[in-house]
Amino acid sequence: MAMQLHGGCGYSKEFVVERLYRDAPLMMIGEGTNDILRTLSATSLTQGKGTIG
User: Fold this and answer.
1) Residue-number span of the structural domain to which 9 is assigned
2) Is residue 40 part of a domain?
3) What's the structural domain count of the chain?
4) What would the pLDDT profile of 4-27 be if each residue is shown by its tens digit?
5) 31 a catalytic residue
6) Active site residue: 14, 23, 31, 35, which one?
């Protein structure tokens, strides 16, 4: 939505939006499916565990 709001300026390196848009794929979980790891993370957090896994 931020890229749509900024339009062509969103692709310019002068704006933070460009970096966030470029870095977004790197923030995804690499191993396993995202749904399984989200469920595992949520379960661990709700059970009060200090570590996940």
Assistant:
1) 2-46
2) yes
3) 1
4) 888 877 778 888 888 888 887 777
5) yes
6) 31
